[in-house]
Protein backbone atom coordinates (compact mmCIF):
# COMPACT_ATOMS: atom_id res chain seq x y z
CA UNK A 1 0.00 0.00 0.00
CA UNK A 2 1.43 3.39 -1.04
CA UNK A 3 1.61 5.96 1.77
CA UNK A 4 0.55 9.62 1.36
CA UNK A 5 4.21 10.59 1.62
CA UNK A 6 5.10 8.32 -1.33
CA UNK A 7 2.06 9.56 -3.32
CA UNK A 8 3.32 13.14 -3.01
CA UNK A 9 6.85 12.18 -4.10
CA UNK A 10 5.45 10.31 -7.12
CA UNK A 11 3.24 13.31 -7.99
CA UNK A 12 6.26 15.66 -7.83
CA UNK A 13 8.29 13.33 -10.06
CA UNK A 14 5.43 13.36 -12.62
CA UNK A 15 5.55 17.18 -12.89
CA UNK A 16 7.34 18.88 -15.78
CA UNK A 17 10.90 20.11 -15.22
CA UNK A 18 10.71 23.79 -14.21
CA UNK A 19 7.18 23.47 -12.70
CA UNK A 20 6.70 25.63 -9.59
CA UNK A 21 5.57 23.76 -6.44
CA UNK A 22 3.99 25.03 -3.21
CA UNK A 23 2.92 23.34 0.03
CA UNK A 24 -0.63 24.67 -0.26
CA UNK A 25 -0.96 23.56 -3.89
CA UNK A 26 0.23 20.00 -3.11
CA UNK A 27 -1.94 19.76 0.03
CA UNK A 28 -5.06 20.83 -1.87
CA UNK A 29 -4.46 18.64 -4.94
CA UNK A 30 -3.69 15.43 -3.00
CA UNK A 31 -6.00 16.14 -0.04
CA UNK A 32 -3.28 15.96 2.61
CA UNK A 33 -2.30 18.24 5.48
CA UNK A 34 0.13 21.12 4.98
CA UNK A 35 2.59 19.37 7.34
CA UNK A 36 2.57 16.15 5.29
CA UNK A 37 3.05 18.14 2.07
CA UNK A 38 5.92 20.17 3.58
CA UNK A 39 7.78 17.03 4.80
CA UNK A 40 7.38 15.32 1.41
CA UNK A 41 8.69 18.41 -0.46
CA UNK A 42 11.73 18.49 1.88
CA UNK A 43 12.33 14.80 1.14
CA UNK A 44 12.06 15.56 -2.61
CA UNK A 45 14.68 18.30 -2.11
CA UNK A 46 16.97 15.77 -0.38
CA UNK A 47 16.49 13.42 -3.34
CA UNK A 48 17.52 16.21 -5.74
CA UNK A 49 14.23 16.43 -7.66
CA UNK A 50 13.20 19.93 -6.46
CA UNK A 51 15.17 23.05 -5.51
CA UNK A 52 14.04 25.86 -3.22
CA UNK A 53 15.27 29.37 -4.09
CA UNK A 54 14.75 32.43 -1.93
CA UNK A 55 12.32 34.95 -3.45
CA UNK A 56 11.52 32.47 -6.25
CA UNK A 57 10.03 29.42 -4.55
CA UNK A 58 10.36 25.66 -5.05
CA UNK A 59 10.73 24.32 -8.59
CA UNK A 60 10.93 20.85 -10.10
CA UNK A 61 14.45 20.12 -11.37
CA UNK A 62 16.05 17.20 -13.15
CA UNK A 63 17.65 14.70 -10.77
CA UNK A 64 21.38 15.05 -11.18
CA UNK A 65 23.22 11.97 -12.37
CA UNK A 66 26.44 11.21 -10.54
CA UNK A 67 28.59 11.67 -13.62
CA UNK A 68 27.12 15.19 -14.08
CA UNK A 69 27.91 16.43 -10.57
CA UNK A 70 30.43 18.92 -11.93
CA UNK A 71 27.57 20.76 -13.68
CA UNK A 72 25.50 23.21 -11.67
CA UNK A 73 21.94 24.31 -12.36
CA UNK A 74 21.14 28.01 -12.59
CA UNK A 75 18.97 27.50 -9.49
CA UNK A 76 22.07 26.39 -7.59
CA UNK A 77 24.04 29.38 -8.90
CA UNK A 78 21.46 31.74 -7.34
CA UNK A 79 21.96 30.13 -3.93
CA UNK A 80 25.77 30.18 -4.27
CA UNK A 81 26.02 33.90 -5.13
CA UNK A 82 23.01 35.02 -3.05
CA UNK A 83 21.44 36.40 -6.21
CA UNK A 84 17.99 37.46 -7.32
CA UNK A 85 16.22 36.56 -10.55
CA UNK A 86 15.46 39.49 -12.88
CA UNK A 87 13.91 37.37 -15.65
CA UNK A 88 13.79 33.95 -17.30
CA UNK A 89 12.56 32.05 -14.23
CA UNK A 90 11.37 29.12 -16.37
CA UNK A 91 14.99 28.26 -17.20
CA UNK A 92 16.27 27.94 -13.63
CA UNK A 93 16.26 24.12 -13.80
CA UNK A 94 18.77 24.08 -16.71
CA UNK A 95 22.42 23.17 -16.18
CA UNK A 96 25.36 25.24 -17.39
CA UNK A 97 28.23 23.69 -19.33
CA UNK A 98 30.70 26.49 -18.60
CA UNK A 99 30.90 30.09 -17.42
CA UNK A 100 32.55 33.03 -19.15
CA UNK A 101 33.88 36.17 -17.43
CA UNK A 102 32.94 39.21 -19.49
CA UNK A 103 36.08 41.28 -18.82
CA UNK A 104 36.92 41.85 -22.51
CA UNK A 105 35.66 43.62 -25.60
CA UNK A 106 32.20 42.69 -26.82
CA UNK A 107 33.23 40.79 -29.98
CA UNK A 108 35.89 38.80 -28.08
CA UNK A 109 33.37 38.02 -25.33
CA UNK A 110 30.87 36.63 -27.81
CA UNK A 111 33.45 34.22 -29.28
CA UNK A 112 33.47 32.38 -25.96
CA UNK A 113 29.76 32.70 -25.16
CA UNK A 114 27.68 29.76 -26.39
CA UNK A 115 24.41 27.98 -25.66
CA UNK A 116 24.03 26.62 -22.09
CA UNK A 117 26.89 28.78 -20.79
CA UNK A 118 26.74 31.56 -18.18
CA UNK A 119 28.12 35.02 -18.91
CA UNK A 120 29.37 36.76 -15.76
CA UNK A 121 29.44 40.47 -16.53
CA UNK A 122 28.78 43.89 -15.01
CA UNK A 123 26.45 46.67 -16.14
CA UNK A 124 26.83 46.08 -19.92
CA UNK A 125 23.35 45.89 -21.43
CA UNK A 126 24.63 45.10 -24.96
CA UNK A 127 26.46 42.05 -23.58
CA UNK A 128 23.31 40.92 -21.74
CA UNK A 129 21.30 41.01 -24.97
CA UNK A 130 23.93 39.31 -27.14
CA UNK A 131 24.44 36.49 -24.58
CA UNK A 132 20.71 35.75 -24.37
CA UNK A 133 20.48 35.65 -28.19
CA UNK A 134 23.36 33.13 -28.18
CA UNK A 135 21.41 30.89 -25.78
CA UNK A 136 23.45 31.77 -22.66
CA UNK A 137 22.21 32.87 -19.25
CA UNK A 138 23.54 36.08 -17.67
CA UNK A 139 24.83 36.82 -14.17
CA UNK A 140 25.11 40.58 -13.55
CA UNK A 141 27.64 41.48 -10.85
CA UNK A 142 27.99 44.57 -8.67
CA UNK A 143 24.27 44.64 -7.76
CA UNK A 144 23.26 46.24 -11.09
CA UNK A 145 19.84 45.88 -12.76
CA UNK A 146 19.19 45.64 -16.51
CA UNK A 147 16.66 47.15 -18.91
CA UNK A 148 13.08 45.93 -19.21
CA UNK A 149 13.43 44.68 -22.81
CA UNK A 150 16.34 42.45 -21.64
CA UNK A 151 14.14 40.93 -18.93
CA UNK A 152 11.40 40.29 -21.51
CA UNK A 153 13.93 38.65 -23.82
CA UNK A 154 15.09 36.41 -20.93
CA UNK A 155 11.47 35.35 -20.29
CA UNK A 156 10.96 34.67 -23.99
CA UNK A 157 14.17 32.62 -24.29
CA UNK A 158 13.55 30.87 -20.92
CA UNK A 159 17.11 31.78 -19.88
CA UNK A 160 17.72 33.19 -16.39
CA UNK A 161 19.16 36.65 -15.93
CA UNK A 162 20.45 36.97 -12.36
CA UNK A 163 21.84 39.85 -10.31
CA UNK A 164 24.30 39.61 -7.39
CA UNK A 165 26.00 42.23 -5.23
CA UNK A 166 29.39 40.46 -5.46
CA UNK A 167 32.08 41.53 -7.94
CA UNK A 168 32.91 39.45 -11.04
CA UNK A 169 36.02 37.68 -9.80
CA UNK A 170 34.55 36.88 -6.36
CA UNK A 171 31.58 35.29 -8.12
CA UNK A 172 33.89 33.21 -10.36
CA UNK A 173 35.81 32.00 -7.29
CA UNK A 174 32.54 31.07 -5.52
CA UNK A 175 31.28 29.07 -8.51
CA UNK A 176 34.65 27.33 -8.90
CA UNK A 177 34.55 26.39 -5.23
CA UNK A 178 31.01 25.00 -5.59
CA UNK A 179 32.07 22.86 -8.57
CA UNK A 180 35.06 21.55 -6.59
CA UNK A 181 32.79 20.70 -3.64
CA UNK A 182 30.45 18.85 -6.01
CA UNK A 183 33.38 16.84 -7.40
CA UNK A 184 34.36 15.76 -3.90
CA UNK A 185 30.73 14.75 -3.19
CA UNK A 186 30.70 12.80 -6.45
CA UNK A 187 33.43 10.53 -5.06
CA UNK A 188 31.52 9.77 -1.85
CA UNK A 189 29.61 6.50 -2.21
CA UNK A 190 26.20 6.31 -0.54
CA UNK A 191 23.98 3.35 0.30
CA UNK A 192 21.66 4.45 -2.53
CA UNK A 193 24.46 3.70 -5.02
CA UNK A 194 24.92 0.06 -4.02
CA UNK A 195 21.84 -1.34 -2.25
CA UNK A 196 19.49 -4.03 -3.58
CA UNK A 197 16.10 -2.35 -4.23
CA UNK A 198 12.78 -3.36 -2.67
CA UNK A 199 11.47 -5.24 -5.70
CA UNK A 200 14.58 -7.48 -5.78
CA UNK A 201 14.87 -7.96 -2.01
CA UNK A 202 13.55 -10.80 0.15
CA UNK A 203 11.61 -9.91 3.28
CA UNK A 204 9.00 -11.30 5.67
CA UNK A 205 5.83 -9.96 7.25
CA UNK A 206 5.42 -9.97 11.03
CA UNK A 207 2.29 -12.14 10.70
CA UNK A 208 4.06 -14.74 8.51
CA UNK A 209 4.75 -18.10 10.11
CA UNK A 210 8.27 -19.44 10.60
CA UNK A 211 7.71 -21.98 7.81
CA UNK A 212 7.67 -18.99 5.42
CA UNK A 213 11.29 -18.31 6.48
CA UNK A 214 12.22 -21.83 5.28
CA UNK A 215 10.44 -21.20 1.95
CA UNK A 216 12.41 -17.98 1.39
CA UNK A 217 15.63 -19.69 2.47
CA UNK A 218 15.06 -22.41 -0.12
CA UNK A 219 14.38 -19.79 -2.78
CA UNK A 220 17.13 -17.26 -1.98
CA UNK A 221 19.73 -19.22 0.09
CA UNK A 222 19.83 -16.17 2.43
CA UNK A 223 19.49 -16.61 6.19
CA UNK A 224 18.63 -13.04 7.26
CA UNK A 225 15.52 -11.07 6.29
CA UNK A 226 13.94 -7.72 7.21
CA UNK A 227 10.49 -8.00 8.78
CA UNK A 228 7.78 -5.49 7.81
CA UNK A 229 4.22 -4.83 8.97
CA UNK A 230 1.22 -4.68 6.61
CA UNK A 231 2.07 -1.06 5.72
CA UNK A 232 5.60 -1.94 4.61
CA UNK A 233 7.36 -0.41 7.64
CA UNK A 234 10.41 -2.24 8.99
CA UNK A 235 9.69 -3.64 12.45
CA UNK A 236 12.48 -6.20 12.89
CA UNK A 237 15.09 -8.61 11.53
CA UNK A 238 14.98 -12.38 11.64
CA UNK A 239 17.96 -14.73 11.22
CA UNK A 240 18.55 -18.48 11.28
CA UNK A 241 19.56 -18.21 14.97
CA UNK A 242 16.13 -16.78 15.85
CA UNK A 243 14.17 -19.71 14.42
CA UNK A 244 16.29 -22.66 15.59
CA UNK A 245 14.17 -25.17 17.55
CA UNK A 246 11.06 -23.01 17.15
CA UNK A 247 7.71 -24.35 15.98
CA UNK A 248 7.20 -23.74 12.24
CA UNK A 249 3.68 -22.40 12.98
CA UNK A 250 4.96 -19.68 15.34
CA UNK A 251 4.69 -16.11 14.06
CA UNK A 252 7.82 -14.33 12.81
CA UNK A 253 7.04 -11.30 15.01
CA UNK A 254 7.39 -13.52 18.10
CA UNK A 255 10.99 -14.53 17.32
CA UNK A 256 12.39 -11.56 15.39
CA UNK A 257 14.83 -8.97 16.78
CA UNK A 258 12.93 -5.71 17.23
CA UNK A 259 14.22 -2.19 16.47
CA UNK A 260 16.95 -3.31 14.05
CA UNK A 261 19.76 -1.07 12.81
CA UNK A 262 18.58 0.62 9.58
CA UNK A 263 20.04 3.12 7.13
CA UNK A 264 18.75 5.51 4.46
CA UNK A 265 19.86 5.91 0.86
CA UNK A 266 21.82 9.06 1.79
CA UNK A 267 23.86 7.19 4.44
CA UNK A 268 27.54 7.03 3.47
CA UNK A 269 29.27 3.76 2.65
CA UNK A 270 31.96 4.49 5.27
CA UNK A 271 29.36 4.72 8.05
CA UNK A 272 27.64 1.46 7.02
CA UNK A 273 30.99 -0.36 6.79
CA UNK A 274 31.92 0.87 10.28
CA UNK A 275 28.60 -0.23 11.83
CA UNK A 276 28.67 -3.63 10.12
CA UNK A 277 32.12 -4.34 11.58
CA UNK A 278 31.25 -2.84 14.95
CA UNK A 279 27.96 -4.66 15.44
CA UNK A 280 28.77 -7.83 13.47
CA UNK A 281 25.85 -7.20 11.06
CA UNK A 282 25.58 -9.06 7.74
CA UNK A 283 22.59 -7.26 6.22
CA UNK A 284 20.91 -3.88 6.87
CA UNK A 285 17.43 -2.73 5.77
CA UNK A 286 17.36 0.52 3.74
CA UNK A 287 14.37 2.71 4.68
CA UNK A 288 12.95 6.19 4.07
CA UNK A 289 12.10 8.71 6.80
CA UNK A 290 8.80 6.90 7.43
CA UNK A 291 10.67 3.58 7.95
CA UNK A 292 9.21 2.15 4.72
CA UNK A 293 11.44 -0.61 3.34
CA UNK A 294 13.27 0.50 0.16
CA UNK A 295 15.69 -2.44 -0.06
CA UNK A 296 18.66 -4.02 1.71
CA UNK A 297 22.44 -3.62 1.73
CA UNK A 298 24.66 -6.60 2.54
CA UNK A 299 28.22 -6.90 3.77
CA UNK A 300 29.18 -8.30 0.34
CA UNK A 301 27.73 -5.16 -1.33
CA UNK A 302 29.82 -2.96 0.97
CA UNK A 303 33.06 -4.91 0.48
CA UNK A 304 32.68 -4.86 -3.32
CA UNK A 305 32.08 -1.10 -3.28
CA UNK A 306 35.10 -0.49 -1.01
CA UNK A 307 37.32 -2.52 -3.36
CA UNK A 308 35.98 -0.55 -6.34
CA UNK A 309 36.69 2.80 -4.64
CA UNK A 310 40.32 1.81 -4.02
CA UNK A 311 40.78 1.32 -7.78
CA UNK A 312 39.30 4.71 -8.72
CA UNK A 313 41.40 7.86 -9.12
CA UNK A 314 40.55 10.72 -6.74
CA UNK A 315 39.27 13.91 -8.37
CA UNK A 316 39.98 16.52 -5.70
CA UNK A 317 42.35 16.76 -2.76
CA UNK A 318 40.69 16.91 0.64
CA UNK A 319 42.61 17.68 3.84
CA UNK A 320 42.83 13.92 4.47
CA UNK A 321 44.37 13.46 1.00
CA UNK A 322 46.95 16.18 1.74
CA UNK A 323 47.82 14.59 5.09
CA UNK A 324 48.15 11.13 3.54
CA UNK A 325 50.29 12.28 0.59
CA UNK A 326 52.66 14.26 2.84
CA UNK A 327 53.26 11.48 5.38
CA UNK A 328 56.30 9.28 4.70
CA UNK A 329 58.02 6.41 6.49
CA UNK A 330 61.30 7.51 8.08
CA UNK A 331 64.57 6.39 6.44
CA UNK A 332 65.92 5.46 9.88
CA UNK A 333 62.96 3.42 11.07
CA UNK A 334 59.99 2.26 8.94
CA UNK A 335 57.68 2.35 11.99
CA UNK A 336 58.24 6.12 12.36
CA UNK A 337 56.63 8.65 10.02
CA UNK A 338 57.63 12.14 8.95
CA UNK A 339 55.69 15.09 7.52
CA UNK A 340 56.00 18.83 6.95
CA UNK A 341 53.35 21.33 8.05
CA UNK A 342 51.97 22.93 4.87
CA UNK A 343 49.73 26.07 4.78
CA UNK A 344 46.59 23.90 4.25
CA UNK A 345 47.31 22.10 7.54
CA UNK A 346 47.32 25.24 9.70
CA UNK A 347 44.68 27.30 11.48
CA UNK A 348 44.17 31.09 11.25
CA UNK A 349 47.18 31.62 13.57
CA UNK A 350 49.57 29.74 11.30
CA UNK A 351 50.00 26.77 13.64
CA UNK A 352 49.05 23.10 13.11
CA UNK A 353 45.28 22.81 13.49
CA UNK A 354 43.78 20.47 16.09
CA UNK A 355 41.88 18.49 13.42
CA UNK A 356 45.00 17.91 11.32
CA UNK A 357 46.98 16.92 14.45
CA UNK A 358 44.34 14.25 15.18
CA UNK A 359 44.26 13.08 11.54
CA UNK A 360 48.07 12.73 11.44
CA UNK A 361 48.03 10.55 14.55
CA UNK A 362 45.23 8.37 13.12
CA UNK A 363 46.88 8.02 9.68
CA UNK A 364 50.28 7.12 11.18
CA UNK A 365 48.64 4.52 13.46
CA UNK A 366 46.72 3.03 10.54
CA UNK A 367 49.91 2.60 8.47
CA UNK A 368 51.73 1.23 11.50
CA UNK A 369 49.10 -1.51 12.02
CA UNK A 370 49.11 -2.43 8.32
CA UNK A 371 52.89 -2.75 8.47
CA UNK A 372 52.51 -5.14 11.42
CA UNK A 373 49.90 -7.04 9.32
CA UNK A 374 47.20 -6.38 11.92
CA UNK A 375 44.63 -5.09 9.40
CA UNK A 376 42.75 -1.79 9.02
CA UNK A 377 41.77 0.12 12.12
CA UNK A 378 38.38 1.57 13.06
CA UNK A 379 38.95 4.14 15.83
CA UNK A 380 36.84 3.51 18.93
CA UNK A 381 38.38 6.07 21.25
CA UNK A 382 41.04 8.75 20.71
CA UNK A 383 42.65 10.88 23.42
CA UNK A 384 45.07 13.61 22.33
CA UNK A 385 47.37 15.95 24.27
CA UNK A 386 48.58 19.22 22.70
CA UNK A 387 51.87 20.00 24.45
CA UNK A 388 53.27 22.76 22.26
CA UNK A 389 52.06 24.77 19.21
CA UNK A 390 53.57 23.65 15.89
CA UNK A 391 54.50 26.39 13.40
CA UNK A 392 53.99 26.35 9.63
CA UNK A 393 56.83 24.64 7.65
CA UNK A 394 57.86 22.62 10.74
CA UNK A 395 59.13 19.08 10.16
CA UNK A 396 57.47 16.48 12.39
CA UNK A 397 58.24 12.87 13.34
CA UNK A 398 55.42 10.60 14.51
CA UNK A 399 56.21 7.45 16.51
CA UNK A 400 53.35 4.96 17.07
CA UNK A 401 53.94 2.19 19.62
CA UNK A 402 51.71 -0.88 20.07
CA UNK A 403 50.77 -1.23 23.74
CA UNK A 404 48.35 -4.14 23.45
CA UNK A 405 46.63 -6.09 20.66
CA UNK A 406 44.13 -8.89 20.32
CA UNK A 407 42.37 -10.53 17.40
CA UNK A 408 39.89 -7.68 16.94
CA UNK A 409 41.31 -4.75 18.90
CA UNK A 410 44.50 -2.73 19.40
CA UNK A 411 45.77 -0.04 21.78
CA UNK A 412 48.38 2.35 20.36
CA UNK A 413 50.43 5.08 22.04
CA UNK A 414 51.57 7.83 19.63
CA UNK A 415 54.16 10.54 20.17
CA UNK A 416 54.78 13.51 17.86
CA UNK A 417 58.17 15.24 17.81
CA UNK A 418 59.55 18.43 16.31
CA UNK A 419 63.27 17.73 16.23
CA UNK A 420 63.94 16.18 19.65
CA UNK A 421 61.13 18.02 21.45
CA UNK A 422 57.80 16.31 22.00
CA UNK A 423 54.89 18.51 20.80
CA UNK A 424 51.94 16.16 21.23
CA UNK A 425 50.74 12.70 22.25
CA UNK A 426 47.81 10.47 21.46
CA UNK A 427 46.27 7.25 22.75
CA UNK A 428 44.11 5.24 20.34
CA UNK A 429 41.74 2.38 21.12
CA UNK A 430 40.71 0.73 17.86
CA UNK A 431 38.91 -2.27 16.45
CA UNK A 432 40.68 -4.21 13.70
CA UNK A 433 39.14 -5.15 10.37
CA UNK A 434 40.72 -7.69 8.03
CA UNK A 435 41.52 -6.32 4.60
Automatic annotation (TrEMBL):
DNA repair keyword on record: no
SUPFAM superfamilies found in the cross-reference section: CBS-domain pair, HprK N-terminal domain-like, Thioesterase/thiol ester dehydrase-isomerase, Winged helix' DNA-binding domain
Record protein name field: CBS domain-containing protein
Lineage: Bacteria, Bacillati, Bacillota, Bacilli, Bacillales
Domain CBS: residue ranges: 195-254, 256-314
Provenance organism: Virgibacillus indicus
CDD domains noted in UniProt: CBS_pair_DRTGG_assoc (cd04596), hot_dog (cd03440)
UniProt entry keywords in alphabetical sequence: CBS domain
Keyword Acyltransferase among UniProt keywords: no
Amino acid sequence: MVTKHEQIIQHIISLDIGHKISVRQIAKKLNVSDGTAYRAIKEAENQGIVSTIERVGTIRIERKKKENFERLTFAEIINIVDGQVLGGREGLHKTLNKFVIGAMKLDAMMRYTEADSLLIVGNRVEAHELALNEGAAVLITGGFDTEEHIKELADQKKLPIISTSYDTFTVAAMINRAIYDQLIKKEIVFVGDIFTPYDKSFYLYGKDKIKRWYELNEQSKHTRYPVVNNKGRVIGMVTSKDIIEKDSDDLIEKVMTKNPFVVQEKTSLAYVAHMMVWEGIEIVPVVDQAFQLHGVVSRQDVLKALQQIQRQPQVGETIDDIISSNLFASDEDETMYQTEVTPQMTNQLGTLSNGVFTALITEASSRFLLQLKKGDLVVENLTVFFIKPVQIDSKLTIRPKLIDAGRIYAKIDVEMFQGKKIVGKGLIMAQLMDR
